[in-house]
Protein backbone atom coordinates (compact mmCIF):
# COMPACT_ATOMS: atom_id res chain seq x y z
CA UNK A 1 0.00 0.00 0.00
CA UNK A 2 1.50 3.32 -1.05
CA UNK A 3 0.95 6.62 0.58
CA UNK A 4 1.11 10.01 -1.03
CA UNK A 5 3.10 12.51 0.91
CA UNK A 6 2.22 16.11 0.43
CA UNK A 7 5.04 18.56 0.54
CA UNK A 8 4.64 22.23 1.22
CA UNK A 9 6.18 24.56 -1.34
CA UNK A 10 9.62 25.81 -0.35
CA UNK A 11 9.75 29.55 0.05
CA UNK A 12 12.80 31.10 -1.44
CA UNK A 13 13.98 34.63 -0.73
CA UNK A 14 13.30 37.20 -3.38
CA UNK A 15 16.14 37.84 -5.85
CA UNK A 16 16.66 41.34 -4.46
CA UNK A 17 16.92 40.03 -0.90
CA UNK A 18 19.33 37.31 -2.00
CA UNK A 19 21.54 39.89 -3.72
CA UNK A 20 21.44 42.12 -0.64
CA UNK A 21 22.54 39.25 1.60
CA UNK A 22 25.36 38.31 -0.76
CA UNK A 23 26.61 41.88 -1.07
CA UNK A 24 26.48 42.27 2.72
CA UNK A 25 28.66 39.19 3.21
CA UNK A 26 31.11 40.42 0.57
CA UNK A 27 31.32 43.86 2.20
CA UNK A 28 32.03 42.34 5.61
CA UNK A 29 34.95 40.44 4.06
CA UNK A 30 36.59 43.70 2.91
CA UNK A 31 38.45 45.06 5.96
CA UNK A 32 40.08 47.81 3.91
CA UNK A 33 36.76 49.21 2.74
CA UNK A 34 35.26 48.91 6.21
CA UNK A 35 38.21 50.79 7.71
CA UNK A 36 37.98 53.74 5.31
CA UNK A 37 34.21 54.02 5.66
CA UNK A 38 33.69 53.18 9.34
CA UNK A 39 37.11 53.72 10.86
CA UNK A 40 38.82 56.62 9.12
CA UNK A 41 36.42 59.51 9.97
CA UNK A 42 36.14 58.56 13.69
CA UNK A 43 39.91 58.00 13.88
CA UNK A 44 40.58 61.40 12.33
CA UNK A 45 38.16 62.92 14.85
CA UNK A 46 40.13 61.35 17.73
CA UNK A 47 43.41 62.68 16.29
CA UNK A 48 42.03 66.21 15.88
CA UNK A 49 40.41 66.12 19.31
CA UNK A 50 43.76 65.18 20.84
CA UNK A 51 45.24 68.52 19.71
CA UNK A 52 44.96 70.89 22.72
CA UNK A 53 44.16 73.97 20.62
CA UNK A 54 41.17 72.15 19.08
CA UNK A 55 39.64 71.82 22.55
CA UNK A 56 39.89 75.57 23.21
CA UNK A 57 37.45 78.24 22.07
CA UNK A 58 38.50 79.86 18.80
CA UNK A 59 38.38 83.64 19.12
CA UNK A 60 37.18 84.18 15.54
CA UNK A 61 34.48 81.49 15.54
CA UNK A 62 33.37 81.73 19.17
CA UNK A 63 33.34 77.92 19.53
CA UNK A 64 35.92 75.17 19.91
CA UNK A 65 37.45 73.83 16.72
CA UNK A 66 36.45 70.28 17.70
CA UNK A 67 32.81 71.45 17.75
CA UNK A 68 33.29 72.70 14.19
CA UNK A 69 34.98 69.55 12.96
CA UNK A 70 32.44 66.98 14.13
CA UNK A 71 29.95 67.98 11.37
CA UNK A 72 32.86 68.16 8.90
CA UNK A 73 33.86 64.56 9.66
CA UNK A 74 30.24 63.48 9.39
CA UNK A 75 30.49 64.84 5.84
CA UNK A 76 33.83 63.11 5.27
CA UNK A 77 32.13 59.79 6.07
CA UNK A 78 29.57 60.37 3.31
CA UNK A 79 32.23 61.51 0.81
CA UNK A 80 34.46 58.48 1.44
CA UNK A 81 31.48 56.16 1.06
CA UNK A 82 30.22 57.72 -2.17
CA UNK A 83 33.53 58.32 -3.97
CA UNK A 84 35.94 55.70 -2.63
CA UNK A 85 33.92 52.68 -1.54
CA UNK A 86 31.10 52.23 -4.07
CA UNK A 87 32.42 53.10 -7.59
CA UNK A 88 35.27 50.55 -7.78
CA UNK A 89 32.90 47.73 -6.79
CA UNK A 90 30.23 48.54 -9.38
CA UNK A 91 32.70 49.20 -12.18
CA UNK A 92 34.55 46.02 -11.21
CA UNK A 93 31.33 44.05 -11.66
CA UNK A 94 30.86 45.61 -15.09
CA UNK A 95 34.50 45.05 -16.05
CA UNK A 96 34.28 41.32 -15.19
CA UNK A 97 30.99 40.90 -17.06
CA UNK A 98 28.95 40.20 -13.94
CA UNK A 99 26.30 42.80 -14.75
CA UNK A 100 25.94 41.44 -18.29
CA UNK A 101 25.49 37.88 -17.03
CA UNK A 102 23.01 39.00 -14.40
CA UNK A 103 20.84 40.59 -17.10
CA UNK A 104 20.14 37.08 -18.46
CA UNK A 105 18.90 35.77 -15.08
CA UNK A 106 15.83 36.53 -12.95
CA UNK A 107 18.12 38.75 -10.85
CA UNK A 108 18.20 42.11 -12.55
CA UNK A 109 21.35 44.27 -12.42
CA UNK A 110 19.27 47.02 -10.81
CA UNK A 111 18.98 44.78 -7.73
CA UNK A 112 22.77 44.87 -7.41
CA UNK A 113 22.84 48.66 -7.74
CA UNK A 114 20.09 49.04 -5.14
CA UNK A 115 21.92 46.73 -2.74
CA UNK A 116 25.22 48.57 -3.19
CA UNK A 117 23.69 52.00 -2.68
CA UNK A 118 21.72 50.80 0.33
CA UNK A 119 24.70 49.13 2.01
CA UNK A 120 27.07 52.01 1.37
CA UNK A 121 24.49 54.56 2.43
CA UNK A 122 23.90 52.65 5.68
CA UNK A 123 27.66 52.38 6.29
CA UNK A 124 28.08 56.12 5.81
CA UNK A 125 25.30 56.86 8.29
CA UNK A 126 26.79 54.45 10.84
CA UNK A 127 30.13 56.23 10.48
CA UNK A 128 28.38 59.56 11.04
CA UNK A 129 26.74 58.17 14.18
CA UNK A 130 30.13 56.99 15.44
CA UNK A 131 31.56 60.49 14.93
CA UNK A 132 28.69 62.08 16.84
CA UNK A 133 28.99 59.54 19.66
CA UNK A 134 32.77 59.92 20.01
CA UNK A 135 32.46 63.69 19.86
CA UNK A 136 29.92 63.66 22.67
CA UNK A 137 31.57 61.09 24.95
CA UNK A 138 35.24 61.93 24.39
CA UNK A 139 35.20 65.68 23.76
CA UNK A 140 31.89 66.88 25.23
CA UNK A 141 30.57 68.06 21.87
CA UNK A 142 26.87 68.86 22.13
CA UNK A 143 24.52 66.71 20.12
CA UNK A 144 22.53 68.58 17.44
CA UNK A 145 19.90 70.79 19.06
CA UNK A 146 17.71 70.73 15.92
CA UNK A 147 17.63 66.95 15.50
CA UNK A 148 15.00 66.77 12.76
CA UNK A 149 16.79 69.33 10.62
CA UNK A 150 20.12 67.58 11.21
CA UNK A 151 18.73 64.20 10.15
CA UNK A 152 17.14 65.70 7.04
CA UNK A 153 20.37 67.44 6.03
CA UNK A 154 22.37 64.26 6.69
CA UNK A 155 20.04 62.11 4.59
CA UNK A 156 20.18 64.58 1.71
CA UNK A 157 23.97 64.65 2.01
CA UNK A 158 24.16 60.86 1.89
CA UNK A 159 21.89 60.83 -1.17
CA UNK A 160 24.04 63.45 -2.94
CA UNK A 161 27.25 61.53 -2.15
CA UNK A 162 25.78 58.28 -3.48
CA UNK A 163 24.48 60.03 -6.59
CA UNK A 164 27.96 61.46 -7.20
CA UNK A 165 29.44 58.00 -6.74
CA UNK A 166 26.88 56.55 -9.15
CA UNK A 167 27.93 59.10 -11.77
CA UNK A 168 31.58 58.13 -11.32
CA UNK A 169 30.53 54.48 -11.72
CA UNK A 170 28.65 55.37 -14.90
CA UNK A 171 31.55 57.24 -16.49
CA UNK A 172 34.44 54.95 -15.54
CA UNK A 173 34.88 51.85 -17.73
CA UNK A 174 37.18 50.05 -15.27
CA UNK A 175 37.59 49.78 -11.50
CA UNK A 176 41.07 51.33 -11.67
CA UNK A 177 39.77 54.33 -13.59
CA UNK A 178 36.84 54.63 -11.17
CA UNK A 179 39.34 54.91 -8.32
CA UNK A 180 41.32 57.55 -10.23
CA UNK A 181 38.23 59.64 -11.09
CA UNK A 182 37.00 59.26 -7.52
CA UNK A 183 40.30 60.63 -6.20
CA UNK A 184 40.13 63.61 -8.58
CA UNK A 185 36.69 64.51 -7.20
CA UNK A 186 37.51 63.40 -3.64
CA UNK A 187 39.88 66.19 -2.59
CA UNK A 188 37.81 69.12 -3.93
CA UNK A 189 34.83 67.57 -2.14
CA UNK A 190 36.79 67.47 1.12
CA UNK A 191 37.80 71.11 0.64
CA UNK A 192 34.21 72.22 0.00
CA UNK A 193 33.13 70.30 3.11
CA UNK A 194 35.57 72.40 5.16
CA UNK A 195 38.17 69.77 6.09
CA UNK A 196 41.14 72.13 5.68
CA UNK A 197 39.36 75.45 6.24
CA UNK A 198 35.91 75.46 7.87
CA UNK A 199 33.33 76.90 5.50
CA UNK A 200 32.33 79.60 7.97
CA UNK A 201 35.98 80.75 8.13
CA UNK A 202 36.42 81.06 4.37
CA UNK A 203 36.59 84.51 2.72
CA UNK A 204 33.15 85.79 1.79
CA UNK A 205 33.46 85.31 -1.97
CA UNK A 206 34.86 81.80 -1.63
CA UNK A 207 32.19 80.88 0.89
CA UNK A 208 29.44 82.06 -1.43
CA UNK A 209 30.84 79.80 -4.16
CA UNK A 210 31.38 76.78 -1.90
CA UNK A 211 27.81 76.77 -0.55
CA UNK A 212 26.58 76.27 -4.12
CA UNK A 213 28.35 72.89 -4.12
CA UNK A 214 26.70 69.89 -2.45
CA UNK A 215 29.10 69.41 0.44
CA UNK A 216 29.56 73.12 1.06
CA UNK A 217 25.79 73.47 1.38
CA UNK A 218 25.72 70.35 3.57
CA UNK A 219 28.37 71.79 5.87
CA UNK A 220 26.36 74.94 6.47
CA UNK A 221 23.11 73.00 6.90
CA UNK A 222 24.63 70.66 9.51
CA UNK A 223 26.25 73.59 11.34
CA UNK A 224 22.93 75.41 11.54
CA UNK A 225 21.09 72.30 12.79
CA UNK A 226 23.82 71.58 15.34
CA UNK A 227 23.41 75.11 16.70
CA UNK A 228 19.66 74.60 17.12
CA UNK A 229 18.41 76.35 13.98
CA UNK A 230 16.45 74.81 11.14
CA UNK A 231 18.83 74.50 8.16
CA UNK A 232 18.39 77.24 5.61
CA UNK A 233 16.09 76.04 2.83
CA UNK A 234 18.55 77.32 0.26
CA UNK A 235 21.18 74.85 1.53
CA UNK A 236 18.69 71.98 1.58
CA UNK A 237 17.56 73.00 -1.91
CA UNK A 238 21.14 72.92 -3.20
CA UNK A 239 21.56 69.39 -1.81
CA UNK A 240 18.28 68.20 -3.33
CA UNK A 241 19.04 69.79 -6.70
CA UNK A 242 22.51 68.21 -6.89
CA UNK A 243 21.05 64.83 -5.97
CA UNK A 244 18.49 65.02 -8.77
CA UNK A 245 20.98 66.29 -11.38
CA UNK A 246 23.69 63.76 -10.49
CA UNK A 247 21.19 60.89 -10.37
CA UNK A 248 19.76 61.82 -13.77
CA UNK A 249 23.26 62.05 -15.27
CA UNK A 250 24.24 58.68 -13.78
CA UNK A 251 21.09 57.04 -15.17
CA UNK A 252 21.72 58.65 -18.57
CA UNK A 253 25.31 57.43 -18.96
CA UNK A 254 25.27 54.18 -17.00
CA UNK A 255 26.11 51.06 -19.01
CA UNK A 256 25.54 47.47 -17.96
CA UNK A 257 28.48 46.18 -20.04
TrEMBL record:
InterPro entries in the record: ABC-2_transporter, ABC2_TM, ABC2_TM_bact-type
Lipid bilayer topology: Multi-pass membrane protein
GO-annotated cellular components: membrane
TM regions (residue ranges): 34-54, 66-90, 110-135, 147-171, 177-197, 233-254
Domain ABC transmembrane type-2: 32-257
Keywords noted in UniProt: Membrane, Transmembrane, Transmembrane helix
GO molecular function, one term: ABC-type transporter activity
Pfam families: ABC2_membrane_3
Localization annotation: Membrane
PANTHER family recorded: DOXORUBICIN RESISTANCE ABC TRANSPORTER PERMEASE PROTEIN DRRC-RELATED, TRANSPORT PERMEASE PROTEIN
Protein name as catalogued: ABC-2 type transport system permease protein
Native source species: Kribbella solani
Amino acid sequence: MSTLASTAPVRRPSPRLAVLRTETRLLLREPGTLFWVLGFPPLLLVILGSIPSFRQVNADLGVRMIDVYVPVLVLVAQIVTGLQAMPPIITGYRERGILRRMSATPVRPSALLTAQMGLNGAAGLVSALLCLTIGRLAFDVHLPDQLAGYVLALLLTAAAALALGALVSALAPTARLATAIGMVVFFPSLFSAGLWVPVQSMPHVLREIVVLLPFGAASRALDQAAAGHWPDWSHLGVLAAWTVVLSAAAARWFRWE
